[in-house]
Amino acid sequence: MQKTLVTTDNGRDAALERELAGLKADFERLREEKVRAEQNLTNLKGQIAELETKAKEEYGTASLAELEKLLADRRAENERLLSEYKQHIAQIRSDLDAVETTE
Question: How many domains does the chain divide into?
Fold first, then answer.
């Protein structure tokens, strides 16, 4: 009867060893993911710092709200210029039509 207990215990021990090996593998995988995530975070922080510096140099600010306002102002200016250009083209067409009809 003692042999049966040893065999059963060996089976349990083997199962525990397999489970432990799996947990160790999970731990290593998670540790590697953590290292990669920390490296990515460091890289992204560096990129953000570079972009903030570039934004300050090019636009005078790195504030998102100020950049959004600047973009809105530039869009409005582009729309105004486009409207003026359309009017200019329409005037040229009108003038050409007038010249053609007088000939």
Answer: 2
